[in-house]
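=== RUN LOG ===
request id: a7f3
mode: sequence -> structure
chains: 1
length: 447
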Amino acid sequence: MPSPPRVLVVSAEPIGERMVGPAIRALELARALTARCEVTLAAPGRTPVDGLARIDAGLSDYDLLLDAARAHDVVVAQLLPPRLLTRVARSPVRLAIDFYNPTVIEVLEGTRSRPSASRNRLRATVRAAATAHLAAADFIACASERQRDLWLGAMALRGLLDPEPEASEPALRSRIDVVPFGIPEQPPQSTAGGGAVLRDRLGIPADHRVLVWGGGIWDWLDAPTAIRATALLPDDVHLVFLGAQRPAMAERDVHRAGAAAVELARELGLEGTRVHFNEGWVPYAERGAWLRGADLGVSAHPDHLETRFAFRTRILDYLWAGLPVVTTRGDELGDRVGREGLGRAVASGDPDAFAAACRDLLADPEPARARVRAVAPELSWRRAVGPLERFCRSGTVRPGTTARDRALRRATLAQYSPIAREALATDGAPFLVRKLGRNLGRAIRRR
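=== RESULT ===
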């Protein structure tokens, strides 16, 4: 029997007690792959993970990550720095790129409030990085069929659809396939206090009802609609935002929407009485206990491009916890909520419709709860990881072609200019010179 493939999963985000989506994604994919692969998880932080080999390494740990990549058969990553991406792509290791989060679309909304020069630099950086990763990848994972169409279109325009694989497998599923976000196979366990942790921490009476907003209050979401809808509901209905601040918050990763949401709740006289902002971030292992204290899970967003290609992972957490969902439609999971009776999906920017949907579900939640219980088993990480696991075990390598090599070289070189401009603008010339010196030193040492 052949030995299982050795797979290195790389996370740019820290793995620890409190994690955001990209780190959760890397951790859970690594866990799911251990069923049939030998897996190592490389990420910042020293927190041990049961059943997984760990390497404490961030994306800046070039030598450590390159050596680790060369010791494995497959590398799975959402993002690699340009030089590391090139070295991995040109080595015998097979590269799976996880594009579950379409940053080329997200950055359009996330940078709207920035000055035009900064906005253009960041958008150019993200576009160049996405192109380089598409050119380098042996396999691409995405979260939905919509996202798959997006990336296939990008590949077609960049001349990255290889004719040989197309002839043998016209659908190109072995090249790019859907690996959605998942949920644990077992629902959150009830505790002696039921869902009291949420109510006790925030001072919500046990006989009152709770709408929960899981995750952060990002600029491309629409917290005001949920807050205004709460103001239209009876006085015993509360709205709780579980994440008021992103863990390991990067200095420049600031979302103005959080402060705006607090200000709106204050203006409406709801802050701390019926709209609650949990300071910090709920630990990953405790989120089930918090969700158990809610009656409905809610999410809202404007009608824009980010919505079209989004995969709102917080909605999956609601379904895992058995909660009916009220959301605005337009994204993959929001449309599924409406289509399959997992709650209600309403038009964007309509607090009255949002409030009416909450009111209906609070009055009669059981039909939606039954549908949620029926659907949840289909959403497990074990099922979601299937296409990625098949790639890791197949041993297939994307055929090397002159066209691919040229595309990779062009795409990699194209990343350096916007990165350098951003470093010069934000950190100054001395920082840029030091950074270039470090990169040159690495190149010389690795020759």
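=== NOTES ===
The first helix runs from residue 21 to 33.
Residues 440-447 have pLDDT under 50 and may be disordered.
=== END ===
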